[in-house]
Amino acid sequence: NAGVMQNPRHLVRRRGQEARLRCSPMKGHSHVYWYRQLPEEGLKFMVYLQKENIIDESGMPKERFSAEFPKEGPSILRIQQVVRGDSAAYFCASSPRQGQIQYFGAGTRLSVL
Amino acid sequence: GNSVTQMEGPVTLSEEAFLTINCTYTATGYPSLFWYVQYPGEGLQLLLKATKADDKGSNKGFEATYRKETTSFHLEKGSVQVSDSAVYFCALSGDDKIIFGKGTRLHILP
């Protein structure tokens, strides 16, 4: 049973470009969570999604960031017009049901030049 | 709101030394508590968990006890190995999200 798969592992973007981060949850998991880890910091919650629904986006920046989890395919975290401050590791987690243990992917490390 | 505070690192120990990483929390209700470990260049792995007061979580020689009276969940290991070098995160479950401490980097010297 494959774990949570994130790609790419590393992503380099120039300021102003768009970044798309993908997350495929574990098989049988329909709940996806995105977290951001700034250098030397812990992980901070961004958004919680179920299939086709955003349940909690209280941790998402108000502008440039969006997330989706379509009926088919992976969850996508999209960052428009990236800035240097967006450089971080972005982790995805999944769980089979709300309130269950979350399993984490290996993360995508975004570097903005 | 809910929060987690853990001791700052880095922590450097010799192999076979005793390890304690302190963690305290602030929470409403009765959250579950976790320790996650992040090895270099990898994602987070759940190390152990406890879901109610006085529960002891254990795995790979690591232990932590959910202490409601002191709001603590300290991580301990009796004899560390070089392979335990990693960043350790204390965390609690809050509603739909996990709230993490800032992490403690552990270096084990051979």
Overview features:
heterodimer; A: 113 residues; mainly beta; 7-stranded mixed β-sheet; 0% helix; 50% strand; B: 110 residues; 6-stranded mixed β-sheet; 4-stranded antiparallel β-sheet; 12 strands
Low-confidence stretches of chain A: none
Query: Strand fraction band of chain B?
Result: over 45%
Oligomeric status of the shown chains? Answer: heterodimer
Spans of chain B with pLDDT under 50 lasting ≥5 residues?
none
Broad structural category of chain B:
mainly beta
SSE pattern of chain B, N- to C-terminal:
EEEEEEEEEEEE
Number of helices of chain A: 0
Total number of helices of chain B: 0
Mean pLDDT of chain B: 93
Task: Describe the structure in your own words.
The complex is a heterodimer of chains A (about 110) and B (about 110). With about 110 residues, chain A is mainly β. In chain A, about 0% of the residues lie in helices and about 50% in strands. Chain A has strands at about 5, 10-15, 20-25, 30-35, 45-50, 55, 65-70, 75-80, 90-95, 105, 110. In chain A, strands 2, 4, 5, 6, 9, 10 and 11 form a seven-stranded mixed sheet that branches. A four-stranded antiparallel sheet of chain A has the order 1-3-8-7, with no helix packed on it. Chain A is globular, with a radius of gyration of 13 Å. Chain A starts with a strand and ends with a strand. With about 110 residues, chain B is mainly β. Helices cover about 0% and strands about 55% of the residues of chain B. Chain B contains no helices and twelve strands. In chain B, a hairpin with a 2-residue loop joins strand 10 and strand 11. Chain B is globular, with a radius of gyration of 13 Å. The mean pLDDT of chain B is about 95. The interface of A and B includes residues 35, 99 and 105 of A.
Write the layout of secondary structure elements.
The complex is a heterodimer of chains A (113) and B (110).
Chain A: E1 5-7, E2 10-13, E3 19-24, E4 31-37, E5 43-50, E6 53-56, E7 65-68, E8 75-79, E9 88-95, E10 103-104, E11 108-112
Chain B: E1 3-6, E2 11-14, E3 19-21, E4 23-26, E5 33-38, E6 44-50, E7 56-59, E8 62-65, E9 75-77, E10 86-94, E11 97-100, E12 104-109
